[in-house]
Amino acid sequence: xxxxxxxxxxxxxxxxxxxxxxxxxxxxxxxxxxxxxxxxxxxxxxxxxxxxxxxxxxxxxxxxxxxxxxxxxxxxxxxxxxxxxxxxxxxxxxxxxxxxxxxxxxxxxxxxxxxxxxxxxxxxxxxxxxxxxxxxxxxxxxxxxxxxxxxxxxxxxxxxxxxxxxxxxxxxxxxxxxxxxxxxxxxxxxxxxxxxxxxxxxxxxxxxxxxxxxxxxxxxxxxxxxxxxxxxxxxxxxxxxxxxxxxxxxxxxxxxxxxxxxxxxxxxxxxxxxxxxxxxxxxxxxxxxxxxxxxxxxxxxxxxxxxxxxxxxxxxxxxxxxxxxxxxxxxxxxxxxxxxxxxxxxxxxxxxxxxxxxxxxxxxxxxxxxxxxxxxxxxxxxxxxxxxxxxxxxxxxxxxxxxxxxxxxxxxxxxxxxxxxxxxxxx
Length: 427
Ligand code: KG4
Ligand code: ZN
Description:
The protein is α/β, with parallel strands linked by helices. It folds into two domains: 5-203 and 395-418, Nucleotidyltransferase, domain 5; 215-387, Nucleotidyltransferase, domain 5 (2-Layer Sandwich), CATH 3.30.420.40. It contains 14 helices and ten strands. It has helices at residues 5-10, 84-87, 95-116, 130-136, 141-150, 171-188, 197-203, 250-260, 267-280, 304-316, 323-351, 367-378, 390-393, 398-411, and strands at residues 45-51, 56-65, 72-82, 161-167, 192-196, 218-223, 228-235, 238-244, 356-360, 384-386. Strand 6 (218-223) and strand 7 (228-235) form a beta hairpin. Helix 3 (95-116) packs parallel to helix 5, helix 9 packs across helix 11 and helix 11 packs parallel to helix 12. It starts with a helix and ends in a 16-residue tail after the last helix. The structure holds 5'-O-[(R)-(carboxyoxy)(hydroxy)phosphoryl]adenosine and zinc ion. 5'-O-[(R)-(carboxyoxy)(hydroxy)phosphoryl]adenosine binds next to helix 8 and helix 9. Zinc ion binds next to helix 7.
């Protein structure tokens, strides 16, 4: 498990990478003057990561090595708790509820992660100024109480870096994670790095058991509940947005259509399950739904027309929406979405010299879409396809740890004092 734990204490090479001193009262250390190119040094390091951008609270501990050329990860602990059931009655995520639930969940998850990673027995005394920590949590009184009650019992675990999602996402929810990370950084005197959630989705493919080699330039299609983006990846950290949705994200389209069909939230997996039954039963296809912007000359997407078309279909049926019709609509929805995603990706591939295709984000948990991408890459050898498994596709803290490592290797640590949450953060 903690093969390198002892070497971390004596061997501080990863800590040479701090861009900012952790103790702001202490004189700047010599290491802080070391130039950025030393960031290529890549001894293994333990990363604690925190994700609170939407309705999942996650904390994980990974061990990372290989630097930017051959990043590889070993998972020591992965905790996740979902608020989905609570948000179900709103048909989407309710921000103040999300914030409260993150505040409740973080401390128990931290303890669970440390226990799982066998870090828990650490007895090093934790010294900090209670008031300074309390000040960090002025807007999260519940978290403050839990944090101050338990943090002394945890010692100082052998963590080399704290990575936390700073955006994009729901700002009140993001702040809970950011303030929690800042408090940990202060109490444990550990460096911190802020992570873009979308870079997290891209990096999720690196966490698969058979760690892939991504050949650049790569193309990343990011398909989640909040985003639909085609991104060219020249290198880790070098991202060019090629196209994006002009209205609803693809996951959002699935969720809204699921709601119209009377299915529970989130609708994506539900619509997909009905579509699968429709195929198994060989139900006759319905009149096609629109495929907005399918033939447009750019790489942008639009999904709101699909939802509107489903709304009209259902309205025209009056109250005769049978289970069979639900399955047929679900199948046609999935077919339309799949065709749009494949065609836009193929257009991007044909216009550029791409060696690896990454498809990430919650929607790639969909097996029908995944199969379609597998078929697509077979047409373009030696193009390789990289997708996260279903559990790594939807939001989790592991991918934040992986992206945190890549960012730390590029830029070093950030100043915990100036770390902020940005709901609209771009890649
Ligand atoms: O990446 P993610 O967990 O959260 C965001 O960052 O948004 O993605 C969640 C989205 C939801 O819209 C959900 O309905 C969709 O991913 N999703 C699916 C499937 N599993 C999750 N959509 C279609 N088919 C699925 N099997
Ligand atoms: Zn996400």
